Amino acid sequence: MSKLQDMMHRLRPNFQKGGKYEKLQSTFDAIDTFLFVPGHTTHGGTHIRDGIDLKRTMFTVIIAMLPCLLFGIWNVGYQHFRALGIESTLMENVLHGTGVVLPIVAVSYAVGLGIEFIFAQIRGHQVNEGFLVTGMLIPLILPPSIPLWMVAVATAFTVVIGKEVFGGTGMNLLNPALTARVFLFFAYSSYMCGEYLSDGEFLWIDANRKTEAIDGFSGATSLSLLGEGNTPTASMWDMFIGLEPGSIGETSVLAILIGAGILILSGIGSARIIFSVFVGGYIMGMAMNGINASMHLNNAYMAMNPLTHLLIGGFAFGAVFMATDPVTAAQTETGKIYYGLLIGAFTIMLRVWNPAYPEGMMLAILLFNVLSPLIDYFVIENNKKRRLARVK
Amino acid sequence: MSKIIKLTKGFDIQLDGEALRFSGKTELSRNFAIKPTDFKGIIPKLDVAVGDEVSAGDPLFHSKNNEQIKFTSPVSGEVIEIVRGEKRAIMEIIVLSDSKNKFKDFGALDPKSSNREEVVSKLLESGTWPMIRQRPFNKIADPNEKPKSIFISGFDSAPLGADYNFIVENNSDNFQTGIDVLRQLTDGKIHLNLSSRLNNAHAFEDAHGVEITYFDGPHPAGNVGVQIHHLDPVITKKDLVWFVNPQDLIIIGKLFRTGKFDASKLIGLCGTSAKKRIYYEMCIGANVSPILDNNLEDGEVRVISGNVLTGKLMGSNGYLGYYDQMLTCIPEGNHEEFLGWLLPSYERPSISRTFPSFLFPNKKYKVNTNMHGEERAYVVTGEFEKVMPMDILPLQLIKACLSKDIENMEALGIYEVTEEDFALCEFICTSKSPIQEIIGEGLEYIEKEA
Lengths: 392, 450
Known about the structure:
Chain A is mostly helical and 392 residues long.
């Protein structure tokens, strides 16, 4: 260990101002502080500091995403062989899935971190750890057959326009990963909204309809089936486990709930937001049932079991990993409850009343990212009033 | 039955290195210093020059803005140095003790049978007035004002905090006289707040003329700001609440009983880098080297006048702060740690449940001064709220201070807080922000502008 430490010490002067590689200073710093927590001591304020820092916080979120990533890798392989009508082993599924998912993850990190390092260098500050999470979130919410260039373009867009122009980590208005997703959704909508591409490649399954898949195989997600007025083919159990086509990391509600458990137990993710999104979605689902029944609308989507709403599409993933992003969520503890309830409710409304945009979760979260300061405003005003009311 | 106020928010940082309830004698300090920097907002005007002989109680300097407020010598001897800092600001006035304990006689006075003016003038003359501070702004009280109430916090909940029950144990009479003095200063209540978790000293439990309230909860329950918030809040700038530390009140009590400014107090020496961790009898402003010589562990040690959250950095040859009841010595943490953010090489206290320490709430930790990470943009929300046992939105108040938004600072409760109330926020802050500094600058700004 001390050899590595000596090496970093020896290299450091080269990367400092006036050194040979001063243009790579922030890159070197990022690697150096990743390996060794600096020997900086407190000055001025408290003399001791809590062990937690942003690296550990972000890393905990990554651990929480691992079940989704691992299941996603397996499921990409599983769906691939299912479309081909071939029996496959666990190993085959994982190997195939890795071949599809790993390049997407690699492109997301390479492009995103590359831009972050450049911005940090230009601005003369350190690389913030925020992108460690974003870089993993982006692949998890993309379809498996996405071309890698699209991953690169979307990542570049979200880092530059979604984040750095606002000032970088901690300053962005919109959830960066969802900004990437929504960018693809609107910039390449013909691609992102269909079931398959012009060359016959399924969007949500890594397989080609014309050349590979068995006849009549449908690669539609439950959400798109519902949007078209059909019933999903996957059972509720399959939806819970995640045995259906969809974005890489968001099909398995089970894996997502394991992640939620990690976030809530470690205290890193806001349990208030996670619970209230689910509650909001469930209540709105029931309200839809009620409206449908009382007005005799006979709308199958409105009549759907509210629980199914929580299982399909990106609902669970959004509730656990997207809505909880502390930078873009409501910042007051009371506000977080309203924020979560509203996201849950709006998602269902968007899905049911505007099937052209089946992925209501993404849009609902982005909408309340923008409105969260307003929610906070009411909470803060309320606090001010309560404080003033104490004057005897 | 007295009221009990239960507080759930906060955090007890469990540290190893407590001071034993035992008072020890040590070689007496020869040098004593009064540091004008201990007093917020005071611009000193010197009353002495180098070479002057002083008795204990003779003024060394007074406040430029209010000449009545005097700062007197804690011992008799000779003024040997006036240390100046940047722009010739006076940093320390150092008195070399002649070890004769010559006291200036202020004359004993029974506070019960005297009036407010007599009491105030004795406090001012003797230099004990600065012991009475006010909220808002945490500064020395204005003798021309009358507070709506006066607070005494009878326990220190800060990490390794001094044990006031031990300190006041044999000082019932002086403490009671101190309360009688305060009685003359306000028409409102005198609140004595005790911890419901401790065996409180008779001097506290049997005190007359006070309203006792028990607080049950983790740090910062012992902060006077938290207690004021729950019992008699400072809502506008004009609400004045004064407060005194119990040990300072004993000095005031002694003054009225004997006529002497006897500045000796019991100072707890704590922290894992100190060897003989007991209470030492020292005078205000005493040079600490006599008790630290041969009493510190090897390695680089940080000596702090006060506690690890709010204390002031001081060398091992520094002078005890005017308001401090303890000295904390902990090792410096200026060493790198391989993958320390992921796999810490030693245990450390944390409020975060990403560390297994949350499973062992009573485990005591050896700490050092490492930052455990670098300063980052503010990202994680909801953490300050866990350690803020007041109806105050901490993050929003911090933001208002940063943006110098006076209206919001007032509405969100800047007058109720001071730096120490945000010390835990600073400790737990994931982004390692200098929160106390932000609040301090906010208070300074609003005092000047509003």
